[in-house]
């Protein structure tokens, strides 16, 4: 099945470089506990009320990426995309939510969908989210200790970059890092 998915400009660029192969999206329901029964989640909220939540995507679904764009009048180049850093004066970009299917140029095949707590993200998964971290150059020290990274290898680890990215998108909506919401984890591969 083909479904739309929204990405901001920076994340579209990461997908284009194949640096992003995963995305997390908040589950916008109050969940205290859940049971995965295959095609949906049987959930209980903090008041003990039971309800079901359907998975937003299934393994094998094809997602077309909706991104910030501009519709031109040119027959051979009908669309410009903000992720391409087009240098055109006075462009009035249209938000990704308004992008029609025919303007899509990026397609993703869903390889996994699961639920987890936001703060359970690992270094490996933060990298799959397109957050590579800032690698430390390890200045030479006599005792082998690097004060810049505390010998972890990063001056800013991938999880910290992911935290900043997440909060820039979702904290004002009530799904900030500190709230540790349940999230959909959607893994994908770029396809033609």
Structural class by helix and strand composition: alpha+beta
The number of distinct structural domains comes to: 1
**Proportion in helices:** 10-25%
CATH class: Mainly Beta
- Label the overall shape: globular
Describe the protein in words:
This protein is an alpha+beta fold and 192 residues long. The protein has a single domain, classed as Roll (Archaeosine Trna-guanine Transglycosylase, Chain: A, domain 4), CATH 2.30.130.30. Helices cover 14% and strands 32% of the residues. It has a five-stranded mixed beta sheet. Strands 3-4-5 form a three-stranded antiparallel beta sheet, with no helix packed on it. A two-stranded antiparallel sheet has the order 7-8. The radius of gyration is 20 Å and the shape is globular. The relative contact order is 0.22. The mean pLDDT is 90.
Please write out the topology.
Layout: E1 2-6, H1 9-16, E2 22-26, E3 33-36, E4 40-44, E5 50-54, E6 62-66, E7 69-71, E8 79-81, E9 107-117, H2 123-128, E10 134-135, E11 154-156, H3 158-170, E12 182-191
Please sum up the structure shown:
Helices cover 14% and strands 32% of the residues.
Quickly list its features.
192 residues; alpha+beta; Archaeosine Trna-guanine Transglycosylase, Chain: A, domain 4; 5-stranded mixed beta sheet; 3-stranded antiparallel beta sheet; 3 helices
């Amino acid at each position: 099945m083909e479904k739309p998915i929204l990405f901001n400009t920076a994340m579209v660029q990461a997908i284009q470089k194949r640096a992003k192969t995963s995305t997390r999206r908040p589950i916008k329901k109050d969940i205290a506990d859940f049971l995965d029964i295959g095609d949906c989640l049987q959930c209980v909220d903090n008041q003990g009320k039971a309800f079901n939540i359907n998975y937003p995507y299934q393994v094998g679904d094809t997602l077309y990426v909706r991104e910030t764009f501009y519709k031109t009048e040119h027959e051979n180049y009908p669309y410009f995309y903000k992720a391409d850093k087009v240098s055109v004066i006075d462009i009035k970009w249209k938000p990704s939510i308004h992008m029609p299917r025919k303007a899509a140029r990026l397609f993703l095949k869903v390889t996994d969908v699961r639920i987890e707590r936001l703060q359970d993200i690992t270094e490996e998964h933060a990298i799959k989210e397109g957050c590579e971290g800032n690698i430390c150059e390890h200045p030479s020290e006599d005792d082998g200790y690097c004060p810049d990274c505390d010998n972890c290898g990063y001056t800013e680890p991938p999880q910290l970059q992911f935290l900043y990215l997440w909060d820039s998108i979702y904290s004002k909506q009530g799904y900030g890092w500190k709230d540790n919401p349940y999230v959909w984890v959607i893994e994908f591969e770029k396809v033609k």
